Amino acid sequence: MSEYNDEHWMRHALALARRAWEEGEVPVGAVLVQGNRVIGEGWNRPIGQHDPTAHAEIMALRQGGKALENYRLIDATLYVTLEPCAMCAGAMVHSRIDRLVFGARDEKTGAAGSLLDVLRHPGMNHQVAIVEGVLAAECAALLSNFFRQRREQKKALRLAQKSTQ
């Protein structure tokens, strides 16, 4: 067992999510841990990288594969601030990670139990253990605050445009 607990690693993922926010991306962060060592980390970057696959989880899994020089990420745990989508969940199955620990649920696109359950689907050739709700309130608040700020900015822009017409 790791000397660090799930909350420790989720706080690391939250710091990465804040980095995404600073870059104008939806604030989701992910850290991939094997044993007591970070082997990959990522934050959402699809806008900046013009890449629809540049989700936090995919970035962390890619780094992990390079760190281990293997596409199989055996005995690894992925910590992510938001429940993964179907694409990311599929990548987790293919990578053979051991565990997923996530913070906030995603009722609209979550594929770890909310909308779908890709990770524990009985037809999959690998199943991932899931721990959900770690620092859920903090993870959800970060996302809510981001989208609130984005709505306020759009409203201010519309008002500014109206006043110049």
Automatic annotation (TrEMBL):
Binds 1 zinc ion per subunit. One of its GO terms (biological process) is tRNA wobble adenosine to inosine editing. One of its GO terms (molecular function) is zinc ion binding. Zn(2+) binds at H55, C85, C88. Residues 4-115 form the CMP/dCMP-type deaminase domain. The active site is at E57. Its cofactor is Zn(2+). Keywords: Hydrolase, Metal-binding, tRNA processing, Zinc. Its EC number is 3.5.4.33. Pfam families: MafB19-deam (PF14437). It catalyses: adenosine(34) in tRNA + H2O + H(+) = inosine(34) in tRNA + NH4(+). The keyword Lipoprotein does not apply. Catalyzes the deamination of adenosine to inosine at the wobble position 34 of tRNA(Arg2). Belongs to the cytidine and deoxycytidylate deaminase family. ADAT2 subfamily. Homodimer. This is tRNA-specific adenosine deaminase. It comes from Paramixta manurensis.
